[in-house]
Write a structure and sequence with these properties.
By secondary structure, this protein is mainly α. Helices cover 55% and strands 4% of the residues.
Length: 338
């Protein structure tokens, strides 16, 4: 077969030498990486050969200065120029011209500081080490308070029936004083009743005083429905508000609230119903409102309070039977009160 020439063999051997050198270089780099991965304090590798020191010094130098964007007053000048430009629309054209000149000059000066390169200035750096000083010999610890359920005010309230009873009782007292006013002023108990019906039924205001003092079944029905509905709603409102004022509930329900809504009606009734405003007697109106408030407040306060269900889970308050929350034997909710 064919034989390789001597010079070709030597050339082939010379070509293989760089490959061997490259292999030694890769091994050397691999060995260096393994040495860098060893923990600190180790002086030999796994084969017992000494380790070479790593030249990776930390940077300890701090710059004496730093470059920051240069300060400029052109934005303030531009704002002042624009302000003068619009001020001149109300004062004089010369002011607008001055503002336009300042705005153009400020725009040019501002753009020259950022284009084509942003202007910078060198600011010296001063290192200051703040000393840590304390006058306390030990660390003060804040005592942790125990977790408690945050109660919603009021904790107890009156049932709905208490508000309805108070409203009905107050309506009787107010109706008695209103009929007394009708007897004293017009010698008829039907005058305040027919006048009350005019709140939603304006025809009685067009009638004469003689017709207003006469009996009218339609006006009686309208006045009764309006009077009872309003009284029950106000009684329910008393049942909600009076528990929040546990010390003087009669003062709130008997005097403060009636005077407030009487003043509100006195200021707005002239716009809402001017004809009714001309016929109503505000002195007797306020007296009847105070009587309603006192009687309704006394009736509501004398009722038995019930605890709110704020400590119960939402599932119990919504009527959902949830295992672990409902009492399986009694069918009621477990008490979560503290």
């Amino acid at each position: 077969m064919f034989r390789r020439a001597p010079h070709q063999a030597r050339a082939g051997s010379r070509k293989r030498q760089p490959r061997a050198t490259l292999s030694r270089g890769r091994g050397q780099r691999l060995r260096t990486g393994l040495v860098a991965a060893l923990p600190r304090g180790a002086t030999q590798d796994e084969e017992g050969r000494p380790l070479e020191p790593q030249n990776n010094p930390e940077r300890t130098g701090v710059a004496d200065s730093v470059e920051m964007p240069a300060s400029t007053a052109w934005p303030i000048v531009l704002a002042f120029g624009v302000a003068l430009l619009f001020t001149g629309l109300l004062t004089s054209a010369a002011v607008s011209v001055l503002g336009a000149i300042l705005a153009v000059a400020a725009s040019a000066g501002w753009f020259r500081q950022v284009l084509p390169h942003e202007a910078h200035e060198t600011v010296p750096v001063k290192l200051e080490v703040a000393p840590v000083v304390t006058a306390r010999p030990e660390v003060a610890r804040i005592p942790a308070l125990p977790e408690r359920h945050r109660a919603r005010i009021p904790i107890e309230t009156y049932p709905i029936g208490a508000g309805i009873k108070g409203g009905l009782a107050g309506s009787v007292a107010m109706a008695a004083l209103a009929m007394l006013y009708g007897v004293v002023s017009h010698h008829s108990i039907w005058y305040p009743i027919n006048l009350l019906a005019s709140v939603v039924y304006a025809q009685p205001l067009l009638l004469s005083t003689e017709r207003l003092t006469a009996f009218n079944p339609v006006l009686l029905l309208v006045a009764a429905v309006l009077h009872l509905a309003t009284s029950v709603l106000v009684g329910l409102l008393y049942g909600v508000l009076l528990p929040m004022f546990g010390r003087r509930p009669i003062l709130l329900g008997g005097f403060v609230a009636p005077i407030l809504w009487s003043g509100l009606l006195h200021t707005s009734l002239g716009i809402i119903n001017p004809l009714l405003n001309q016929r109503i007697n505000w002195t007797w109106f306020v007296i009847s409102q105070v009587a309603f408030g006192i009687v309704a407040g006394l009736v509501v306060v004398r009722q038995r309070r019930v605890r709110t269900r704020q400590f119960l889970p939402f599932a119990v308050r919504a009527g959902i039977e949830a295992p672990g929350i409902m009492d399986e034997r009694g069918g009621g909710a477990r008490k979560n009160e503290p």
